[in-house]
């Protein structure tokens, strides 16, 4: 049997993109991932689908492994030949007990590697606009544990030295002891007027920052009910936040936005929202599946020569069509006689990926709009192919037929309900943890309502901004008792993002 290995990996402070390239590779290749509380779900989504995920953090509901148990588990898994990632928040050697785990592995003769991470001590401060050093303020900073029992006689922290010995002091795990920490610092010579800040859930969309002085920060925190996990930052550098606060100023900061598109298509929308500071939460309500019967699509694919027009109404339609073409060992050359129409810019881009030049894209991306122009381009008896979803609306084929065209509407793919976890979404909606829900097609609305299966959907969404990509989707929502708070002016993903941006900035 191959010998296993353990990677002690720092997952970074929370923003999933702050993991190192090496750390990400470890997650992607591991058989087993043993992770802590501060490691975000997004990080675990990079794991192989068949990877074993073991939670090792403390939790009120579950049995806690304890440090001994974790050490044993690491040795055991690696000894049975597994590639193991031991994933910890921030850096594994900054108050992460990574040192103890490495010792246990060394003693057991298990191969291991350390993959350092971006520590919250520096990163959460940076995301709050606080540099831990700055030439005008200080050349030293110290990272200190804040969870030492304040009544302990022989403290491991030399308060007399540390209070004034370093310019910037960053305390981790210190929220419960905040009053003691600030008191000890003042008693040991640090000025009560020293600027101080608390940063909770730093680098995450939920980041919150509280600023004050050593004298008043503790009372302020109590007032606001400011809790763990948070940093306590003490020092003159805190004053730079006024100028440098960047993360919390992005336009959609603090908004959690549900993305209901199919998993394959969600990333474009998610990335655009994230870039504006929002936290996208993917809840796929649609999966793309093969047609139940390929015969109609196959007939068209084998007789492409007879079509004057091929009209594509979705990116999925394009992909499924060309997949089938390829399946029959045919390619683009089959389309030489046909004009190509794409219903929107994304569909056009998908066609261009295959090297096609699109002859016509309507200005407004709706079936009704296509017909306005095509009526001058399509003659009676012209054959038109429409490869699309099984449940697509009938408006377009009917209008084309009305113009005298012979329309072959064939199912190129089916949309089926997605595999999103509806229980969790209902829970989050009840707790007011979702700010916006995006619907990018009528089926996303319908499937969303079906998947949630709650009787009073309207009530549940009372405080949520429902964002629809266009009027058709908005009508579907209304029909199901959901009132859209905003509808995009341009019926594209970009248009939708702009509408959300406008909603929150105007
Ligand atoms: N190894 C970790 C620290 C583990 S100790 C690291 O390098 O970041 C856990 C403490 O870290 C928490 O109590 C809190 O003080 C701090 N912490 C971790 N993640 C944080 C975050 N995103 N924002 C603020 N503080 C954080």
Determine the fraction of residues in helical runs and give it as a percent range. 25-40%
Low-confidence stretches: none
* CATH topology heading of the largest domain: Rossmann fold
Average pLDDT, to the nearest integer? 92
Distance between the termini: 63 Å
Helix segment tally: 20
Bound molecules: S-adenosyl-L-homocysteine
What is the overall silhouette?
A: elongated
Main structural class: alpha/beta
Radius of gyration: 29 Å
Q: What's the main sheet like?
A: 5 strands, parallel
The CATH class of the largest domain:
Alpha Beta
Tally of distinct domains: 4
Strand content: 15-25%
How many strand units? 20
- Strand line-up across the major sheet: 3-2-4-1-5
Short description:
With 506 residues, the protein is α/β, with parallel strands linked by helices.
Q: What does the model show?
A:
The chain is of the alpha/beta class. The chain has four domains: 5-118, Cobalt-precorrin-4 Transmethylase, domain 1; 122-248, Tetrapyrrole methylase, C-terminal domain (Methyltransferase, Cobalt-precorrin-4 Transmethylase, Domain 2, 2-Layer Sandwich), CATH 3.30.950; 256-285 and 418-505, Rossmann fold; 289-417, Rossmann fold. 36% of the residues lie in helices and 20% in strands. The protein contains 20 helices and 20 strands. The strands form four sheets. Strands 3-2-4-1-5 form a five-stranded parallel sheet, sandwiched between helices. A five-stranded mixed sheet has the order 6-7-10-8-9, sandwiched between helices. Helix 3 packs across helix 4. The chain is elongated. Bound molecules: S-adenosyl-L-homocysteine. S-adenosyl-L-homocysteine is lined by residues 13-14, 38, 88-91, 94-96, 119-121, 124, 172-173, 199-204, 228-231.
